[in-house]
Amino acid sequence: GAVVSQHPSRVICKSGTSVKIECRSLDFQATTMFWYRQFPKQSLMLMATSNEGSKATYEQGVEKDKFLINHASLTLSTLTVTSAHPEDSSFYICSASPWSVGSSEQYFGPGTRLTVT
Amino acid sequence: AQSVAQPEDQVNVAEGNPLTVKCTYSVSGNPYLFWYVQYPNRGLQFLLKYITGDNLVKGSYGFEAEFNKSQTSFHLKKPSALVSDSALYFCAVRDTQAGTALIFGKGTTLSVSS
Lengths: 117, 114
Description:
The complex is a heterodimer of chains A (117) and B (114). Helices cover 0% and strands 54% of the residues of chain A. Chain A has 117 residues and is mainly beta. The N and C termini of chain A lie far apart (37 Å). The model of chain A has no long low-confidence stretch (mean pLDDT 90). Chain B is globular and about 40 Å long.
């Protein structure tokens, strides 16, 4: 089956620094990737939709200058949390949708636990 | 706008008993519906989906769900619960257009006691 990886799985950083999280589709090409954020014992909240070769589409309330998304290739999207603060601590999950017309599948990465101290 | 409701924060069942985790949805047009399970500090695992066809969908680990268009529901069921089924379950919906994101319900914690 299709596999999506995320790196790192866990990261601890100091307040004010930036952190980059990678999301890769390992065995398929993904024109669209999605970034979600999950607080403890809560649902996944869509942050942005990332399309290869174009700017990401952010959901209302998500700061695009703080959460930089780059989808440089059909297998890689990155999320950079800039000037991180403790309130950015969360579980970040990406998903990828294969490049095929009418595809209903969406595959999720294992998530990245970010802790900002 | 699309939305998903999971009315129960927690469902408790005894091992061996049938379980139901409820989900209702609101979407314009025909939806794609999904169930995912999440174990602590892990990503999401796909259980099953409804795209079209038979309203009763069978998925992984013995789970099934029934699409009911008139009631706009997609309840998750299993005839006999296992302790290992204890986890957080999410119902999700998305538009049929390719490249659209999943919208998740708030999640329901299933606790199966031995």
